[in-house]
C-alpha cells in the first residue's frame, strides 16, 4: 500500500494569517512534510490565507498553492475547513490573532516573540489552555540535529558538571543607519528590540541543553538612535533615504546578560545584537563542563565541536558531523556530512505541530515555552533599567 492511500491518513486543513517571508516558509514546511515524513498519519491541505495586502493574498493562491485567499484574518478562523492556523504576523498583532484562534478552537503555530511582553504571552498561554489547544512556537534552532546531539551529551554527563555557558546571537540586519524605521523599532508595536527578537532564541537553546534561567543582570544599548521613516511601502529590512524624516528608535539594538541557572551551579553570559557589523547571523552556544566542552554555531549548523577529557597529546576539539540518530536528521539526509538547511528545521517544526494536533500530546515547542523565554526577557528589561539582579518569574 502506498503512503498516499494509507487508510490512517487524516487531512488537516491549514489556514495562514499573514503572507510575509515567514508565512511563505510555514507554507513550504507544511508541503514538505509528505516528503520528509512519509510515515505521518496526516496530510496538510493549504485551504485559505489572509493578508491585508491584496498582492500578498494573491501570492498565497498563485504561488503557495492555497485554495483561496482573503483580506480579513477572521475569514480564516471562521472557515469550517480550517483545522489549524499559522500566525506569522508582526508582534503587535500576535495577541489579537492568537486569542481569536483560541476562541475559534483552532490550534495555532505562532512565531516568537509570541507577545510583545510576558503579560501578553501569558494571556495567549491562558487562552490556549482554557480552550484545550496544543500549540507550536517557532523556536527553530532547537530543532538542529547537532543541538539534539549536544543535548544528549550534556544529559548523559559526557561533559561532567556544567560550569558555564556562552550564548551569542549577533546579526547585522539593522547595522545600516539608513535601515528604514519600521514597527520593529517601536515599543508599542514590537515590545523589546533584540531581547525578544534574537535573545529569546538563545534563552530557549540554553534551556534545552543546560536548564532554565533563575536570575539575570543585564545591560542594553541603542546604538543607532534614529532611523529614516520611508515615504513608501517597504518589505523586511529595506533601506530608506537619508532625506526621509527621522524617528527615534525606542528599543534596544544590543543586550548582554549574566545568568544564573535554576538547579545548577552553572553561570552564563548571553549577548545579542542586530547592529553588529560583520556577522550576518552568527548564532552560537558554547557549553563548558568539568570533563569537556562543546560549541555550536548556526553558520555551520550541521557541525558540533566537541572536546572530551582534560589532557593528552591530541587534546582539543573534534568536529562531529550531525547524522542519523541526531534529532530528525534521518528524515532529510541518509548519512552524516550532508547538510540540512534552515527550511528543513521549519519542516520539523511543522511536523511536530501537526503531530501534536493529531495525538493531543504537546510534541512541538509550545506557547508555554515562549512564556518561559519572555519571563527572562522581562527580568532582563527590569535589570537594564535599575542595574540589579532580577529573579525570573516562574508560572
Automatic annotation (TrEMBL):
The Gfo/Idh/MocA-like oxidoreductase N-terminal domain is annotated at: 13-139
Q: Which Pfam families did the record assign?
A: GFO_IDH_MocA, GFO_IDH_MocA_C3
- Its domain of life reads Bacteria
The Swiss-Prot or TrEMBL record annotates one GO molecular function as: nucleotide binding
Alphabetical list of SUPFAM superfamilies matching this protein:
Glyceraldehyde-3-phosphate dehydrogenase-like, C-terminal domain, NAD(P)-binding Rossmann-fold domains
Keyword terms of this UniProt record: NAD, Oxidoreductase
Ranges for the GFO/IDH/MocA-like oxidoreductase domain? 147-294
Write the protein's name.
Putative dehydrogenase
Q: Could you tell me which species this protein originates from? A: Frondihabitans australicus
